[in-house]
Amino acid sequence: MDFLRPARWEEALAAKAEHLTAVPIAGGTDVMVEINFDHRRPEYLLDLNRIGELGEWEVGEDTVRLGASVPYTRIMEHLRAELPGLALASHTVASPQIRNRGGVGGNLGTASPAGDAHPALLAAGAEVEVESVRGSRRIPIDEFYTGVKRNALAPDELIRAIHIKKADGPQQYSKVGTRNAMVIAVCAFGLALHPETRTIRTGIGSAAPTPIRAQAAEEFLNAALDEGGFWDNGKIITPSVAKQFADLCAAACNPIDDVRGTASYRRHAVGVMARRTLTWTWESYRGTEPTAFRKGSAA
Amino acid sequence: MRVTFRVNGRRQEADDVWEGESLLYVLRERLGLPGSKNACEQGECGSCTVRLDGVPVCACLVAAGQVEGRDVVTVEGLADYAKERAAGGGCATHPGSCGTAGTSLDAARRWEARPTDSATGEGAQLAPIQQAFIDAGAVQCGFCTPGLLVAADEMLERNPNPSDADIREALSGNLCRCTGYEKILDAVRLAAARQSEGA
């Protein structure tokens, strides 16, 4: 095994191009587990810790450009206002020690269906900035996950940053596990209200081969909210609408039975989380000034 | 490969390190610092918790090559670390300057073996959090203790007056299989109380 330690991003790209089998390591919270247990013996480890820019973020007008290695701890501390869903999800990641090392880039690189960040990214709307010596491109988050622990990266590409839409309304995140810390999600659910476009977006984790959005549920709810004038009148969402939304979210799942839970439990739990997070976010939306989330009036 | 870094204020060199080796393995097997415990090797238990440039991490999940040129504090260095912090400076406030004072030649010459009592901490040089663990009876088999000490000490540095929820949150990555959590919480509360009395 060789240990590659590029000091700059361009050097990292060159090293990856030269050694396509090199496994990038930043926080190490996934990669080192595999090496410790002898599940993986990469020919090359590509250490990204020396590349300072990967640990930085920029808050732009509409999006946050989050460096691939920004630890979850930083997201919780500094980006709660801009990325409330991701901040909540970050807080459910493992333990303080892991949150001090791990970041969203690693979650995307591993692309486990159980990665905690995925539902929040799907719900908020995001693009993954990847680069190789051939050039840079942005992959929409909906196209990023291609299979169980598979993503849309080419062998010579590295994840540089994630561009996440800044919240224009309330966001929520919910995760089911046997305890609060140190659990892989049995299933997880993210929901974001986007009052500017009068849409909602969802993200489901650990209930299908990849993280997914519940698109039929989103379309149903978008239409129901529109028809009922809910965005304007701020009324409580009709229980039958919330129930139908929850049922459609559960139906979007394609889960398996495993040691952490059965498929039917996962479907049920996703429905419950969908209803709850909808209630929480909508209550929060109703509680704000009616115009607060309208385009152009945001502070 | 060779890895050069600072551990508890001392420059250390480890040779013939395998590229896939963890920081934990280097500390225990190459540098003779077995205080950080090896249990789960997957970041679940926290018994290998050390501070990397001041930040608590699981040493089992840090690749050895990643610590090149960086500062590590293990439970073995906790007493000195706490002492320097109390003296207002050192590693706690200036990462990188950790242990620059080291042991003076004079102090080294005057050193002699003294009897210590591990049951009471008498005669041993301990960090306040270590003494609090002894006084509160928070040590049973002792395997989780080093990681808990490092994690708890870091929390008290950041948050001198933690609520019970803060303590639980800060220690949520450290498992104790003797189920001694109540005594551990007592110990951290005790250390916090002593710290604010002393302040």
What order do the strands of the largest sheet of chain B run in, or round the barrel if closed? 2-1-5-3-4
| Rg on CA atoms of chain B, Å | 16 Å
Number of helices of chain A: 12
How big a fraction of the residues of chain B is strand? 5-15%
- CATH-scheme architecture of the domain at 171-286 in chain A: 2-Layer Sandwich
- Give unreliable regions of chain B as ranges: none
Shape of chain B: globular
How far apart lie the N and C ends of chain A? Answer: 53 Å
Tell me, rounded to a whole number, the average pLDDT of chain A.
Answer: 95
How far apart, in Å, are the first and last alpha carbons of chain B?
45 Å
The CATH topology of the domain at 3-76 in chain B turns out to be: Ubiquitin-like (UB roll)
Overview of the structural elements:
The complex is a heterodimer of chains A (299) and B (199). Chain A has 299 residues and is α+β, with helices and mostly antiparallel strands. Chain A has a domain at 171-286: CO dehydrogenase flavoprotein, C-terminal domain (Enolase-like, domain 1). Chain A is built from 12 helices and 13 strands. In chain A, the strands form 4 sheets. Chain A has a 5-stranded antiparallel sheet with strand order 4-5-10-6-7. The radius of gyration of chain A is 19 Å and the shape is globular. Chain B is an alpha+beta fold and 199 residues long. Chain B has a domain at 3-76: Roll (Ubiquitin-like (UB roll)). Chain B contains 8 helices and 5 strands; from the N terminus they run ββαβββααααααα. Chain B is globular and about 45 Å long. The model of chain B has no long low-confidence stretch (mean pLDDT 91). At the A-B interface, helix 2 and helix 5 of A face strand 4 of B. Chain A: It comes from Streptomyces jeddahensis. Chain A: Residues 1-169 form the FAD-binding PCMH-type domain. Chain A: InterPro entries: CO_DH_flav_C, CO_DH_flav_C_dom_sf, Diverse_Substr_Oxidored, FAD-bd_PCMH, FAD-bd_PCMH-like_sf, FAD-bd_PCMH_sub1, FAD-bd_PCMH_sub2, Mopterin_DH_FAD-bd. Chain A: Keywords: FAD, Flavoprotein, Oxidoreductase. Chain A: GO terms for molecular function: FAD binding; nicotinate dehydrogenase activity.
